[in-house]
């Protein structure tokens, strides 16, 4: 059985406690690796290694050299592209086409993008008058925060981890990464690449394990960790915030969502349908940006529901390596149980099930995979739990609306605020609606079109802070003002 170990100070090791847990392939339900679970003592060793690197080779390395090394990490991921691909597919079960076009290329690109960006930001400089007439010069330096704890989810494991690790390292910090217990493989593979390309010992460390009473909590509580960057559930974010409060750590949170898509009657119908199919079912609905609430202007409602139903029924689950497979499984049996409990609840809440609502029949070797049917509901009141709570599966509720104001009010009636999609050919309306939506991101006539320089993040309970471009560098660095009396 393959073993995924901790990576501390450039060495792979088992835990001092000898604890481990299984890594399960969600397509077959089979164990694919045994993963070392870090204890608080292991986390402590990782943080100490990161502190040493920060004050040693990484902290003293000329910036151009540091950024050149990060570009080599990108090259290193690309050189081992097929290994990363296989590891990500085995952990998540997502179709090869998706991992091949999104997860792994973005994992590499993140290092190049932040290596390029890190040197291009200006800082403040002021000439200050003084009584003696000589003046003073105030200028700011951008300095690293210190050791950063990186806590990751399982839905886009390499992509979301490198989206944090790359800017943190580009800004001069060192990191201790806690990958999701569901998807430990690519973080471990990245450790090999880091070592191969010459990233100094202690700069990138990996501690596997769970959240509460395990590696995640130990990392958050460690006094040597100055910042926590976290992507995951809102509830987990609250727990991390509580545990980080004692040491007043910097926090960057990308949390859950219950994202609306609004389709106006003047939308390009085919594009709106295709875009909504993507926004509801991509990665089996396991993207924080997925639309779970779809609002359609009444004249279009029935035609739209029918078109989405047809598209959903064409999605084909199965072998991730089969080019005909268009939808993977959920990440685990536990997550499947949760999604299926919402499928049941929707019926109890009075939903009309347009399609899906159960488990597809799968043949061996996929019979034990965590597959569920893509599902569409209509007819639920806006107060229903299935319309209010994040499900994180291939499912949406479609609701008709009559006026722009009504659509905006329903879209905003949620505690979340990550993103929204608006479909209309009237761009004035698109802009007007976008300004009124209480989300961090609005896409008009598209979905998940990313320019990595733009601010990414949520409002309300969907997050704190922004990632992307300068916004990432701002989080992973502090401004030090220097005042020189002339
Ligand atoms: P999760 O919150 O269950 O776990 C995320 C990570 O936190 C895991 O590594 C887990 O081990 C760790 N963790 C759990 N409890 C912890 C604790 N008390 N202290 C420290 N670490 C702890 O989330 P998930 O199920 O892995 O991911 C799905 C969730 O992530 C969804 O809610 C989704 O919306 C959200 N998400 C948000 C974004 C975004 O950009 N806003 C992106 C992807 C996923």
Quick recap:
The chain is 39% helix and 22% strand.
Supply the key terms.
Aldehyde Dehydrogenase, Chain A, domain 2, single chain, 486 residues, alpha/beta, binds nicotinamide-adenine-dinucleotide, seven-stranded mixed beta sheet, six-stranded mixed beta sheet
Summarize the structure in words.
With about 475 residues, this protein is α/β, with parallel strands linked by helices. A seven-stranded mixed sheet has the order 15-16-17-14-13-18-19, with helices on both faces. Strands 10-9-8-11-12-20 form a six-stranded mixed sheet, with helices on both faces. The relative contact order is 0.14. The longest helix is centred in the N-terminal third of the chain and has 22 residues, at about 95-115. The protein has two domains: about 1-255 and about 460-485, Aldehyde Dehydrogenase, Chain A, domain 1, CATH 3.40.605; about 260-450, Aldehyde Dehydrogenase, Chain A, domain 2 (3-Layer(aba) Sandwich). The protein is built from 16 helices and 21 strands. Strand 9, helix 7 (about 185-195) and strand 10 form a beta-alpha-beta unit. Nicotinamide-adenine-dinucleotide (NAD) binds near residues 151, 216, 392 and 462.
